Amino acid sequence: MKNVSIKKSLGIHVAGRPAPSVEDGPAVSSVAALPDHIPLIKPRLLVKKGDAVNIGSPLFEDKKKPWIRFLSPGGGTVTDIEYGHRRAITRIVIETGETEEHEAFEPVDEKAAKGMDRDQVIDAMAVRGLWPLVRSLPYRTIAAPDEKPASLWVCLDPADPFQVPSTVYLKGNEPLFVSGIRILERLGVPVYVCESEQVPVESPDIRAIITHRTAGPYPAEDPGVVLYHTKKSAVENRAWFMNGQDVLLLAEGMASGRYPISRIMAVSASGNGSPAVNRCVKTRLGAPLASLLPDPETARGRRWITGGLFRGQTAEPDGFMGFYETSLLLIEDAADPELFGFLKPGARKPTASRTFLYALHKKEFTAKADMRGEERACINCGKCEQVCPVDIMVQFAYKCVYAEEIEEALMHGLLDCVECGLCTYVCPAKIELAEALKTTRRAYYEDRI
Ligand code: SF4
Ligand code: SF4
User: CA 30, CA 393: separation in Å to the nearest integer?
Assistant: First the structure.
């Protein structure tokens, strides 16, 4: 087993991580698919309002790559299709029937999978709506089947602090996980499984297939970070990755012949220490976010974030869970600006520099949406570069992006960025560095395809 240790980053101690146990969520009467939460695809609808659908019926596909299909997370009637800016499809809502029907696919057990070649596995995954679970670095888009990447990475513990730990989703599912890895190996790409030093795996069956162990603070477990610190040549830049929980979905979807809709979701309210809120909930793909909370009062005055603390997006209380999302976080919304706040000692104000007294103890803090200031010009302090886990000279890359000098931004490591958000978090000038880099990288990708 190889060790991958990350030194450059930032230890962040945010309160309110989910308890490592699972509760069953309530039954829901509606679910939704959120096409605009899937990066770098152009969705084309395959249903209209009023259509009856089964679990696993195709809902939409990628216009440019129609073999990428997203299937219905519910059986019932399509009751609403919402559009956003420039007619982008934002939400397809399905009212679930009392008894939901499933589309039936041919079950593929482990023995049958062993006899399949690469193309057969890809076809089987695509038909069952499972291929989008395989994503490609460096753009983090859905993998292209004709690509020949150097590796496929499965990192067991998601890098973001508020995600479902592997100890939770693997419990009782160890054989299913191993079976999922065996299916991935049929793709003809070396499969690497990484455990986190902080969350060692106990199952001997899984231990036998672990190839790497990561150590270090967030985002040490990110596949892009592991790849950056292990690759030996530019050829290895192209890699695929899959989340640990998604390997279970792959194995379940192939073996059962049904589209797998079960998901475990981490629900946290930073600052609210109640274990009734900070927990993992067994729910289903596309579930209403409100159904994940035991008491709506916990959401009063809070900002809803899905997809993680550093990489997530703001959600509305009437929102739903997206295809790749496995966490709901409620943080305190921005308060009114503090008068002369910079003169206060700030024993509870997290700081990456030494601005406040917090720097002396660095205890757990409550995440808040406060910006503590507005965007201003870069002061060349270099803090963004000091925390970047993949050694990007962030301020220079950002200035190239700002000046639309994309080739120069590439030379400064634009494609290595793993979208961890730490540079934005520490920037005293409040510049949205990670977002600027991500937007530019995606635009560069879209120009090339
Ligand atoms: S540039 Fe920023 S977002 Fe990208 S990897 Fe470095 S610190 Fe993370
Ligand atoms: S942290 Fe912000 S202010 Fe400091 S060098 Fe980076 S971009 Fe400039």
Answer: 46
User: Cβ neighbours of residue 300 under 8 Å, at least 6 residues apart?
Assistant: none
Exposure class string for 126-158: b at 16+ Cβ within 10 A, else e:
bbbbbbbbbbbbbbbbbbebeeebbbbbbbbbb
pTM of the complete model: 0.93
Ligand nearest to the CA of 417: 1
Task: Give CA–CA dist 262/74, Å, rounded.
Answer: 11
Per the rule left: phi > 0, alpha: psi between -120 and 50, beta: everything else, 340 is: left
Question: Domain-by-domain residue ranges, the chain?
Answer: 22-104+259-332, 105-256, 373-449
pLDDT per position as a tens digit, 5-28: 998 888 777 877 888 889 999 999
* Nearby residues of 64 by Cβ (< 8 Å), 6 or more positions away: 41, 42, 449
CA of 379 to the centre of ligand 1 (A): 18
Closest ligand 1 atom to 422 CA: 7
User: Helix count (H) and strand count (E) of the chain?
Assistant: 12, 20
Q: Each residue of 58-70: pLDDT tens digit?
A: 999 999 999 899 9
DSSP 425: H
Instruction: Tell me if 69 CB under 6 Å of ligand 2.
Output: no
Please give the number of the atom of ligand 1 that sits closest to the Cα of 394.
1
Mean pLDDT of the chain: 91
pLDDT interval class at 273 (50, 70, 90): low
| 283 membership: H or E segment, kind and range | strand 279-284
- Confidence band (pLDDT; 50, 70, 90) for 398? very high
| Alpha carbons 412 and 396: distance in angstroms, whole number | 7
What burial class does residue 314 get, using C-beta atoms within 10 Å of its C-beta: 0-12 exposed, 13-18 middle, 19+ buried? exposed
DSSP 338: P
